[in-house]
Amino acid sequence: MKLQNKTTISGHQLSLALAGVLVACSLGLTGCSDPAAFQVNEAYIRAVEFKSDVTKPLMAETPETELSDVQIKNVSEVLEGLYGTPDNPNLPGGVGLNGFLSLRKLKVAAGPVTYSGDKDSLTGLESGLYRRHCAHCHGVTGDGHGPTAQFLNPYPRDYRMGQFKFKLTDADGTFKKPSKADFDHILMEGIPGTAMPSFRVLSGPEREAIIDYVIYLAMRGQTERALIQAAYDTANVNGEIDGNSEKILVRFNDDQYVSDDIEAIKEIVQPVILPWANGGNGTVQRTIEDAPAGWDSDESVEQGRKLFFQSKANCFSCHGQTGLGDGQTNLFDNWTLEHLGNEPGDAVGSADDGEIAGIPEYFYHNELAQMGVVKPRNIRPRNLRLGNYRGGRRPIDIYQRITGGIEGTPMPGNTKLTQQEAWSLVAYVMSLPYEATSRPKTAPSFQGVGTNK
Ligand code: HEC
Ligand code: HEC
What we know:
Strand content: under 5%
Largest sheet: 2 strands, antiparallel
Number of strands: 4
Number of helices: 15
Strand order of the largest sheet: 1-2
Bound molecules: heme C
Shape: globular
Order of helices and strands: HHHHHHHHEEHHHHEEHHH
Structural class: mainly alpha
């Protein structure tokens, strides 16, 4: 694959890019019918259509207002103008990226896998890195729906919500975007206890290219969501159906409006980009002060144990009386909740026979699965006696999980604990794999059959 010698993109190129799509599509040029295409986020379209319906009918019924095909096509065209295609990525200009991502790196990570040894003349790297190493799990679109995905537990991350779990940027009860260093940590270590492998074998420049590409896919996915929401709002006036299913975001066919429309698109894209790019510098990892002396002493472990069961920390309510992860077992992560028609944080029923997480099984198979939705399943609070820490096993990692939380999951970031208390919980958590499980208070007793003595 030949790489273009173009690394920067300037403000006005956003509009050029948009106009480019118009031309390519109307002339029926290849750009619109590339073999590798990004999948439309149909599941989110559906979620938006239902979210806005206050009566929240069962997800199995037809929503009151639906986006028309024209509107959905318009969203795809705008997206392609901004971000290009899987074989030919692009970056939106004039929206605050400020060189945060490099188009050259994206082009190395993107594209089909090449076996001919075709290398970029400047970097000496092969292209197609993402499709070679990541797509079979995370999908070409980054929707977490590659061919292997359905067989894994947990499922591979769907990047399109822009939410990530394991990072050192979260603090003070708010979730921030991961830094590139966070992503590199994930690529070096993998996520222990899950299918996410370590990519230590890749060179530094290869990992850098892939990291830019993952962020690109996340931004693209978030932008798509924002555009879908905007398209829905445009079609819907004062809560009533406008009746105009032709109302679209950019009126490509009407020169008179295009520049206004492009301004409107910028306003949608900027809030997606800025939290990531932060003026081109990315998100900054928080600095965690060194653990206080004696943080892992017996007294500290004992203090942690007490806190574990107190309302201030409240760990036991999810992780269970004995830390086995059996406290609250009907929870869902944000990726799943969306498809079930619930707001993040809601707890709904568990997956029973004939029903999957409260929705009829036939409905999942006939509808949701067709849209690339993986089968909903509960997220279990971690069994803390296994000593498996997905976000890393250094004390500082556990400290960060407890005080920063795990985005996209019910695991909250605790802002009420003092530093010293949080460290005592780290000590307690890390002692759990070595502590004998005491008899659970709720243990069933079978009359006459063996006792728990
Ligand atoms: C064999 C399947 C598999 C492959 C291949 C794979 N991943 Fe993953 N990945 C996963 C799974 C599963 C998770 C979710 C783990 C979890 O939720 O705890 C994940 C999660 C992630 C996350 C989210 C981390 C976070 O903090 O939320 C990133 C980023 C990621 N993978 C990047 C990559 C990249 C880049 C590649 C290719 C270089 C790749 N993965 C290849 C399975 C895979
Ligand atoms: C509302 C439920 C809830 C509460 C309260 C809760 N957790 Fe969690 N916790 C979870 C869930 C769910 C996960 C699994 C997240 C995942 O799979 O990505 C988790 C994961 C963890 C992990 C694993 C981190 C890793 O890297 O794998 C640790 C350690 C942990 N929790 C400790 C605690 C401690 C200590 C407390 C109390 C301060 C606490 N949790 C409170 C739900 C909760």
